[in-house]
Amino acid sequence: MPNNRIPLPTVNRLSLYLKCFSELASSGTEYASSDQIARSIGLNPAQVRKDLAYFGKFGRRGFGYHVEQLKEHISKILGTHKQWRLAVVGTGNLGRALLMYPGFQARGFKIIAGFDVDPAKVGWELDGARIYHMDEIEKVIKKEKIDIVVITTPKDSLDAVMARLKETDIKGVLNFAGKHLKDEKIIVRNVDVALELEQLTFFLTNKNIE
Amino acid sequence: MPNNRIPLPTVNRLSLYLKCFSELASSGTEYASSDQIARSIGLNPAQVRKDLAYFGKFGRRGFGYHVEQLKEHISKILGTHKQWRLAVVGTGNLGRALLMYPGFQARGFKIIAGFDVDPAKVGWELDGARIYHMDEIEKVIKKEKIDIVVITTPKDSLDAVMARLKETDIKGVLNFAGKHLKDEKIIVRNVDVALELEQLTFFLTNKNIE
What we know:
2 copies of one chain form a homodimer.
Chain A lengths: L7 H19 L4 E2 L1 H8 L3 H9 L5 E2 L3 E3 H12 L5 E6 L3 H7 L9 E8 L8 E2 L2 E5 L3 H7 L4 E4 L6 H8 L6 E4 L11 E4 L2 H13 L5
Parallel strand pairs in A: 4-5, 4-8, 5-7, 8-9, 9-10
Antiparallel strand pairs in A: 1-3, 2-3, 6-7
């Protein structure tokens, strides 16, 4: 399977390419040059050519890259050609921001449910997602065929939430709880906003690095 | 300057190492082995040894790595040994979540101010940060010596916000607006939650990659 050979830094850029090709496709562009792609996502053209070479022959000499074909191909690699069903655990400010985030649906993510321990929040509907009590999480995940859970609870609750999720068929977790998480069974991606800020201050402190 | 030679994937892991060494230091651990570090952040020990070798000689044969020294060294590289002054533009759910995020202060980030176009929000205080009207942004950034601005507005407002920021001495932007941003003068880090989900679905779709 060719995906096995895609290096991780390229994987990290796949979403940028997908976004770029989606925008080009919706503006009616049929072919795009590596220069054009590079400009739109802030990379250099050589890097773009190297990255896109991993996906096979989608370029045509003198024309550039076939936008629609590359869009579909990268979408398949990223798994966003199918719709993923999401639930959000924790409905504080961050949880609500995610439950109502307008950019998910267009990228193949549908938020089905939210969970909270606060009985006052149970029964709310936010942009089509219903809020359930945490007590019901295993039942709702099964009934609603949830694929991915986004955790936005305080970090002290993380282990308890994960223990519950391990009893379900959840495949992936996006973890905003601010504590690094790894699991044998469930694939986890950790998002840490302070870490994003640290990456920024790294470049502010070491301006000459790139 | 040795930082110039640190490869980007290692840079991306620096925050994880800093977190790990901070936790070890506060639990009173003086030396840690690469095995111990690797386990706590979910990498393999060979990768840890390779990464830490970029920072110089902090290991002692038979003892492991000196936790406090590495913590301080990485903190300096990341620029988190000083306090950074932050402002948040947009005080919707995400903006408020960031204004009240408990994990910033401990990692060297102090949120000073929020900005919104809604006059009803002006004058609020959220965990010590005051909300100002967008009209005052240049004045407040100067007066409060803000270093970094976190943008949480809808993507349609991004260009207008950036035009205002270019009139200030802001050094860095963390962009949550959901549109990729690059700037000649201001260092930008883009955070896109849908992109984080796509990285997750990539691994769910290509489980055999790692």
